[in-house]
Amino acid sequence: MHAKEGREQPPLVTIEHVSKSFGAVRAVDDVSLTIREGEFFALLGPSGCGKTSLMRMIAGFGEPDRGRILLAGHDVTHVPPHKRPVNMMFQNYALFPHLNVFENVAFGLREEGVAKHEIFARVAEALRLVQMQPFAERKPQALSGGQKQRVALARAIVKRPKLLLLDEPLAALDRRLREETQEELKHLQKSLGIAFLVVTHDQDEAMMMADRIAVMQAGKVLQTGTPADLYERPANRAVARFIGDTNVIDPEIRARLDGRALVAADGVAFEIHTGPARDFSLGIRPEKLRVLEPQGSIPGAVVIEGVVEQRLYRGDVTELRVRTAQHVWRVAMLNASRQSTFVPDVGARIEIAFSPHDVMVLPE
Amino acid sequence: MRVRPVILVPFLWLALFFLAPLAIVLRLAFSESAQARPPYRPVFAWADGWQVWLEKVKALGLSNFEAMLDEPLYADAFFSSVGLAAAGTLLVLLIAYPLAYAIARAPRDRRLFLLTLIVVPFWTSFLIRIYAWIALSKPEGLINHALKSLGLIDAPLPLFGNHLAIIIGIAYSYLPFMVLPLYATLEKLDWSLEDAARDLGATRLRAFWRVTFPQTWRGIIAGVLLVFVPALGEFIVPDLLGGSDTLMIGKVLWSEFFGNRDWPLASALAVMLLLLLALPLAVLRVLEDRRETV
Fold it and tell me: What is the mean pLDDT of residues B201-217?
């Protein structure tokens, strides 16, 4: 739903063919992106994929070697950071150790020359938003990690930027706090109406929070889309591998006709829609594979025989590794009830099944 | 907690090479001048024992200290020293800070090299370097000669034999003592803080002034003390670079010891100087502690 809203919003940031090298390394390689107003956007990728370099260029730290960056219609490619209507929350929070919480948050307003009483009101409001009002007099060293994160957030939003950049905002928090903060961030973003750009290597984090995600690898954007787009319709093998678990299979292609193909996996043939792709592999998510009960059947499904090699109980699901003629499949069985549903033992000979509609075509 | 014997080593060192000489100077300061060898008659004899010493302390004559206050020369020398040392220290600070900053921001693998460049001149004898500075700064010296040849000046710049020469001399001599503590402080700073300040609307200069500079107070204080204190008692620089009219306490001390052979008066001067230096240090210390606890 948010994605739909986002689609109607005008673009806020337009990145056009931006490249940036450090020495011989192409950190960012011909990237084009659009971030819309009021959108929660995530740059997702492994460390060293260029996501941080790209974000720093949007903030004004380091100019692109090529391409340009537009912000609200203005070319800001060569505008220094202090003149951009963009604020950033740094990964280590970068709180000023010699200033207390209030002065940290007030810093940007003082630089802007905002009147004293207004500074007081706006800092108080920002601290209230992140529930850090009682700590206004504390020095950063006297705060916990979660509290520092909140102060950094307050400091970044108090100037009411058009775009807030967050560099791995949750990486320093423990798991429990991270999940809470994800929801809070999402909520805060919607209530402020400021566009957020989050850089993260954590796909769960990106999926949970973002309206749209750009997946980056080796300086390039592999795919941009909603979390559901990326998960259900990955553009290629790398995205499918990066987002969620996938069984990736190199099929035997028996025939092609008009964007359709007859393929076979483990000797079982089925027909899929391939589009124009010539070289591709197939991806099937573990939870889309079903284990057939003895003598069971599913109409229209592709059924493959195999042996359970491993069984991993993970609470919400039980994961099986099933060896078939040519592959080892990961199958996720939902533990939908405490009454034990049918779960085969290790060594059992079973049949697994999937619908050809759930097969993802992954070009190289 | 048990004190480990290792910790005794520095204490012994301090007792032997700091407290003992200090005691000797103190004893000298309360002695009487005499035509003898050594040229004083001690009030406190080592053989007296501390009972007798206590008696003597009660009847102590402060004649050397009174003489010091009666003669305006000493106060003048002291204040003039403070002024020159302060000006020299300020000049060192102004030169050393940008240097230390640049080194701290240089690529990690180049920093040691740059620091070495700062320290290398100090492998040459201090005296030789000051003599070299004379050759450079005299009216017919290299600097004036070069500037004249280039047509930039008509008359030689007064770089030698005056107060300016002493200030420059101090700045030159003590540069590493300022650069090193400043570097040690700057090197530990998190530079993303400057980025954060710029992101919040500060120019590079403002970011430095509001974020980096306030975090380096400790280094500045350490550097200022390391330069100011020895500069205040400096003898060689004013003697060789200063004019005949320059009055510095170190020079006065020297002439009292070796010119007038009035050891007790010279010692009293030295003790006074020590007190005048120690007092501001103690105040600073207290201020530091208070800032820590806030």
Answer: 94
What's the whole-number mean pLDDT along residues A8-29?
92
Q: Do B199 and A155 touch (CB under 8 A)?
A: no
User: Which residues on chain B place their C-beta less than 8 Å from a C-beta of chain A?
Assistant: 190, 192-193, 195-203, 206, 210-211, 214-215
What is the residue-averaged pLDDT of chain B?
85
Structure tokens at A258: 């008009």
> Looking at the complex, does the CB of residue A98 fall below 8 Å from at least one CB of chain B?
yes
Tell me the C-alpha distance between B47 and A348, whole Å.
103
Residue of A nearest to B203 (CA): A82
Our CA angle for A57, A60, A65, nearest 5°, is 50
The two structure tokens encoding residue B291 = 């800032």
Q: Which superfamily does B72-262+274-293 belong to?
A: MetI-like (1.10.3720.10)
pLDDT value, residue B59: 63
CB contact under 8 A, B197 and A96: yes
What Cα–Cα distance (Å) separates residue A168 from each residue in A55, A153, A182, A206, A232? Answer: 11, 12, 12, 10, 25
Q: What pLDDT is recorded for position B44?
A: 67
Element (H, E) at A3: helix A2-8
State CA A161 to chain mean position distance: 22
CB contacts, 8 Å: B193 with chain A: 94, 96-97
Cβ pair B192:A59 closer than 8 A: no
CB contact under 8 A, A81 and B198: yes
Q: Is there a contact between A162 and A12 (Cβ–Cβ < 8 Å)?
A: yes
Summarised one tens digit per residue, pLDDT across range A242-265 is 898 999 999 888 988 888 899 999
Nearest to B100 by CA among B188, B192, B2, B20: B188
Can you give the residue ranges of every domain in chain B?
Answer: 1-61, 72-262+274-293
Interchain pair B193, A94: CB under 8 A: yes
- Going from the C-alpha of B147 to that of each of B15, B129, B130, B155, B224, the distances in angstroms are 53, 22, 21, 10, 32
Question: Which one of A82, A96, A97 has the shortest CB-CB distance to B203?
Answer: A82
What domains sit in chain A, N to C, each tagged with a CATH number? Answer: 2-242 (3.40.50.300), 246-364 (2.40.50.140)
- Taking only the tens place, the pLDDT of each residue in A173-215 is 888 888 888 999 999 999 999 999 999 999 989 999 999 999 9
Is A111 in Cβ contact with B196 (below 8 Å)? no
Kindly report whether the peptide bond that precedes residue B156 is cis, defined as omega within 30 degrees of 0: no
B202 with A111: Cβ contact below 8 A: yes
